[in-house]
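Supplementary Methods S3. Input chains for the assembly prediction are listed below.
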Amino acid sequence: MFKNYLKITWRNLVKNKSFTAINIAGLAIGMASAALILFWVQNEVSYDRFHEKNDRLYTMYNRSKFDGKLWCWNTTPKPMMKALKQDYPQVGEASRNTANSFLFSVGDKRLNLQGNFVDPDFLTMFSFPLLKGNRLKALNDMKSIVLTEKTAKALFGNEDAYGKTIKIDSVDYFTVTGIMKDLPNNTRFKFGYLMPWKYWEKINGGEEKNWGNNSVQTYITLKPGVTEAFFNARVKDITRSHSDIKDIDVFVHPASKWRLYSKFEEGKQVGGKIETVKLFSIIAGFILLIACINFMNLSTARSEKRAKEVGIRKVVGAGKSSLIAQFMGESLLIALFAGVIALVIIILSLPAFNNLTQKQLFVPYSSVSFWLIVLGFIVFTGLVAGSYPALYLSSFAPVKVLKGTFKAANAAISPRKVLVVTQFTFAIVLIICTIIVKEQLDYAQKRDTGYARNKLAYTFMSGDMSKNYRLIRNELLSSGAATAVTKTSAPITEGWSDTWGFSWDGKEETSKIDFNIFNTDGSFTKTMGLKIIDGRDIDITKYPSDSSAIMLNEAAVKVMGFKHPVGQVVRNGNSKYIVVGVVKDFILQSPYEPVKQMIIQGPSSWFNVIHFKLNDKLSTAQSLKLAESVFKKYNSEYPFEYHFVDEEYDLKFQDEQRMGTLASLFAGLTIFISCLGLFGLATYMAQNRIKEIGVRKVLGASVVGVASMLSKDFLKLVGVAFAISVPVAWYFMDQWLMKYSYHVDISVWVFIVAAIITTVISILTVSSQAVKAALTNPVKSLRSE
Amino acid sequence: MIKITNLEKFYRTEEVETIALNKLSMHVDTGEFVAIMGPSGCGKSTLLNILGMLDDPDEGSYVFNGIEVAHFNERKRADLRKHNIGFVFQSFNLIDELTVFENVELPLIYTGVSASERVKRVEEVLDKMQIMHRRNHYPQQLSGGQQQRVAIARAVVNKPKLILADEPTGNLDSSNGNDVMELLTDLNEQGTTIIMVTHSEHDARYSHRIIRLLDGQTVMENIMV
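Predicted structure tokens for the full assembly:
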């Protein structure tokens, strides 16, 4: 019986080549898209779940009130780690974690690499296996270092790196005490090497005892049997009991929630990335459903051709169940073909998809469970796609189909119409979302940053740059490479520091207001192209007292309530600052948020970055070459690495850009798959109504009249889909835009554009078949009996 | 073998109710060859469909081999049908995607006959119908007469007790038509009961008895000699 089914299925597929192609192509594209998204989802949900101690692994969080709002954040004071280990018997292991960057030299090879400072426990807490070395003591010595395979290869090539020596910056020699297997693609950690915390203490002047500087992540494992709630109740007061800071609660956040549940509002965990994961899972489901709907539509549209076979089979003894089995088998076979093609599509498109999603996903060819899931996925698709056609086709009454009186139902709300409406609703929602996301992106990109990004570059300070800064600055200016130079605490595109320690006359005692902190040695407004609204820029060469000068931005003036800000005194602990100028607000962090209050401190503070405005009169390449020779001259050990502010600024839009690209990709795919189905349906409809068309033409109908009559039916469905999708899309996008303080309003024209796009595409899809049918010579269609 | 009493069948559309069978009663004995005649719309085909358990009556009784089947559900009817009844249609109704052999094999598959037994029985019946040489052809590659012989082969391959033929010669020329009637006569002589709907007086003469219908009722019975 099975062989017989297979035979007839195969012959049917071969006989109706174009429909087989549409069916398989639609299903394959749908399966491939859904599978790619599921790959992504699988990667997201598996983040840091592979650690053996996953269920006991936590990171420390602070919770405190600012401006009446409860905030939670996971940077913690450096001494917290030791306090946890010493005073809390529930804690097993503990490690601090903070990023660093050093110049590595091996022989002639020099590389600037990024890694982390950690405590020795790090290697036993997390399951990052060492290929070489003992994880119990690999980081015990101050000058020991653990490299990932990739870093080892970059430094030592094919040589064995274990036990070898590396020069770090130009000062210290480290021994490689461990080679770590490269980090998997589903961990929050990104480092090329691990260095012991002891070395941090060496280069930063010893152990830090300050509980007020929240600057590292602290990870712990709890001993088996200790619950999160139990420990939270005990650890809550750790900061209070170790310092005079009284307004910070501490709690733990479990490893299983790091990736997907780390958004906090008003001190409570309120989801996070899980929302995107859910949304994408739903989209994957819908794309697959749409592909299945295509299959259902095409199969049932062809029912009149299959009806005779069903009738005959019933007459010669087939029961309904054996017919259902037969049609299910057919759809399973098609799903299998589609699945194979989908796999090919996935393999071919995975690099591009990885690029788009910033992931390193791969097909796990050697995993048995992967292939079982693939098989399950194919069977699931086949069953979903085949269910309705199987029930529909197997229910035909033989008397009717064999007597030739059979006409497939053409009811007002046939399931087929519902299916087409479902498909197009989803496609139109995605089109609307795409337009709005792009609009929002455009809106934010066009927002005035408040400074001049063009030809503005920066470099992180390393080696002798700090020592030779004055020489570097002077020569950059005198050589004509740059027109302005400033030393700052952070790149102009990033907020690295903030504090709520400032006070001023008129400030309420109890209020805690957090300021962004930015440091500059002078020439700040000139280099950045900022506008001074009041007062002047900090300039220590002209005003020797400017070591205690600060500037405010407009937002700071507003929250501090100064009528005449210049000359005001602002305090932080024992330090006293004088306001010398006010700059126009500029975007430091998110281009979607209002500009936060900021204090710009003068030359007596700390610096990490040199910004320089390239000379307009030279080409960028010429200026850079000049700049390079200056940096090489005064910092010869280090390669000259620079960043352009405009490029860095563009990275702020990456997430939204990716969202926009993904939305348009999904929209494109769904509309494509839907149109594939629409095309198939239109073809069958044209064939089925060929006689009607013939009669109409004989009676005088024009080609245009007939073609538009045929197209109208489908456009009505698209119209219904549009009516449903408008409120759905509006609701979702309204929710999405709420995330941004600075956002567009949804305007009517978005819907109009979506309507036009959809209508044009569906007309193009349907009309070719409609026109073809309308052009058929009626003599031909009416003669064939 | 068959006894129907006061059988009624209506067809309803929104505005009109048509009576297809109007309190029709008749019986057919085992081994008989009965022809049913009458003008278009007299209810011949409806009667045949009910006899073949493809359709169920609205009222009345239908006893097949001593079993009341008038209100059997679809599954029970399908089960009874596949073991007892073979069909021959005017338009042959072969499956285009299957070869001659596969078409004839189909009923055996549904009654669960083993593969080797199927080959034996299909070959036997194809041989008898003299279309063995066409076994691997598709229906479209055959003449009308040949197609109808395949259809008859399919109807008899399961050795049914009853064959229902709906104008079996309607789409054939006279010589092919005669061949088909000879085949049916042979089958009848070997013990198969045959009920045939026909428009043709010529074909009806092959039968033992003619039942004439008009407006869903029996109007006359001719016993042939």
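The beta strands of chain B are 2-12, 17-28, 33-37, 59-64, 67-68, 85-89, 162-166, 193-197, 209-214, 217-223. DSSP finds seven helices and ten strands in chain B.
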